[in-house]
Amino acid sequence: MHPLLIRALLALALLLGGGGLGAWLGARLAQGAAGVLGGCVLGLLLFLLQDALRAARLLRWLRGAQAEPAPRDLLLWGELGYRVERALRQREQALQREEQRLWQFLSAIEASPNGVVLLDAQDHIEWCNGVAADQLGLDPQRDRQQRIGNLVRAPAFVAWLHGQPQAQALTMAAPDGAGRQLALLLRAYGDDQRLLLTQDITERERVDAMRRDFVANVSHEIRTPLTVLAGFVETLATLPLSEAERARVLALMTQQAERMQALVADLLTLATLEGSPRPPTGEWFDAASLLQQVLVDGEALSQGRHALSLELPSGWQLAGSRHELQSAIGNLVHNAVRYTQAAGRIELRLQPRGDGGVAIEVADTGPGIAREHLPRLAERFYRVDSSRSRASGGTGLGLAIVKHIAQRHGGELQVQSEPGQGTRMRVTLPSARVRASGGAVGDAASIAASIAAEPAPDTLPNSAPEPTPDAEPDAAPDAERR
Description:
By secondary structure, the chain is of the alpha+beta class. It contains 13 helices and 13 strands.
């Protein structure tokens, strides 16, 4: 039944009850109709008093924090309190759900690798995530409601921010002066609000620069021998030459053609290394035989001009591609032979590491390398001394090949050098690719004899041929470092 109808029936019952009581009292006191009227008024007053008490309890609850349930009275006020309480609880639940969704949304933005800044119509910061704070030098809490133009004062940024609606990103240096490059994008949303997106593009810019340098270097390296070949072809076609002159021109043409072949071979080797899966860890081979073969090749290249030695603990085996590792260590040895003066020393050694892995090191007594060049030695075509490197026949890709081979085996290429103090280059291998064989490997003489009886291992796919003792060192994929 509807609460209003119940309330009306209750009021009527109180009136009838009060009237009946007044009639009974009037009959006893001989008052008649006056008694009936007084009883009705008394019943009405009782009803109004009870109703006022219920209303007061509900009003007191509404004025409070509504932490307790609404008064559970009967009739209208009880129903009204229940309806108000339910509406309040539903609103609280809706607010909690919205707050939860907002928290999840902000958490997702916080986890984004890009920076996000919410700006109002006056470019005040309403919110920003940690990435944007780090990239723009902001404090997510302290800088709220601050104008972003007062905090990021780069002139290019301020002009871009206050210009017309931007369709393209702005590239600028990070305000912290750490050399990072940022790409900024601005988008409008809501009521005159704007969304500022930031992205660290330092690595992308570096890769793009390396790609541009790589294309330019390849073009230059190929154009030079092609120009020489074209000139010699024209000479042969237009000028009468003696047999000696013709033989000399053909020899020079052959040298330039071999230079291009070595370059293309090294490029194909790099492409093969980058595009093929890592060597398996279940194929084991003897480290002693590999390093002895590298030593024999290095002595052949040196032709007695250097003192080469091998320091090798017995009983070590390596897992992976023997051909790749032999090519990598051979590059380091050939590099040391190429740049170490006559009568210098070159030491090849295998050293156990504390983490269970090993380091295969090639140390020489050459002129050394300045410290500023060390971080870039493994970059493609990077040369410390380009004229000397080209004169020695290098392609500028040798150390890049070594670095990729080391990484494919889970290791890395490390270089230590100072001018006048020689150079140490080492390839590290993790413990997963190293194990002790459990027995002595044998002395150097027996190992050398066994190697001499074995067929020479293949070189890397598409790599340049190994040099012969009377050949120039430019035939091998060298490790250009100077």
